[in-house]
């Protein structure tokens, strides 16, 4: 990274903080990671994200919808189907989540080798 | 992202969790973000990371050194100088942190426009 003045360094570090705040909490990034692999129904997200309860998942989905991270679509099927997807606004997060996953896989190997 | 079977989705989500665990806590990612801009002394990191105290910074640096995230070098100057840098192992985190920063800057604009 090019050398830049300290006020810009602080602004960029604050921006990292802002993103981490949006992605904070135990479940948000796992839900986003699940939706990185495509449009999903509630039950599919529940299956993907180890350890989350239905009650917590519905609260998190409401919060993420309010924060423009995900989009909820109600399909006119019988019975009604509700599906969730990452909003266009959040597309930029997909490579971040992909990189986080890659690093995590390498990190786990490294820790096991120690 | 290509469609992949659900056990691999869960493995990748777990890997995202592992990375977020390593980067968790209020300060780690900000300290890494500061070091993304080059080798730094203790006082420089303290200036970069808004709100952190000297005591907390030294504890975090010890923990990050133990987890192979950063390297501490003692220079034979008068007085002695100690500098910190990101380990090669962590180089892959730099683009992640850079993307987190970019997204945070856009997110802040979006929230202000709402």
Supply database-style keywords.
3-stranded antiparallel β-sheet, transcription regulation (chains A, B), 114 residues, HTH_HxlR (chains A, B), transcription (chains A, B), 5 helices, homodimer, alpha+beta, Arc Repressor Mutant, subunit A, Helix-turn-helix transcriptional regulator (chains A, B), 58% helix
* Largest interface, counted by CB within 8 Å of the partner chain's CB: A-B, 49 and 49 residues
Oligomer category:
homodimer
The appropriate CATH architecture of chain A is Orthogonal Bundle
* Poorly predicted sequence stretches spanning 5 or more consecutive residues of chain A: none
> How far is it from the N-terminal to the C-terminal residue of chain A, by CA?
30 Å
Radius of gyration of chain A: 17 Å
Largest beta-sheet details of chain A: 3 strands, antiparallel
Number of domains of chain A: 1
Strand order of the largest sheet of chain A: 1-3-2
Structural class of the helix and strand makeup of chain A?
alpha+beta
The CATH class assignment of chain A is: Mainly Alpha
Q: What is the CATH topology assignment of chain A?
A: Arc Repressor Mutant, subunit A
Number of strands of chain A: 3
General shape of chain A: globular
The average pLDDT of chain A is 87
Domain HTH hxlR-type (chains A, B): 14-112
Protein name (chains A, B): Helix-turn-helix transcriptional regulator
Keywords (chains A, B): DNA-binding, Transcription, Transcription regulation
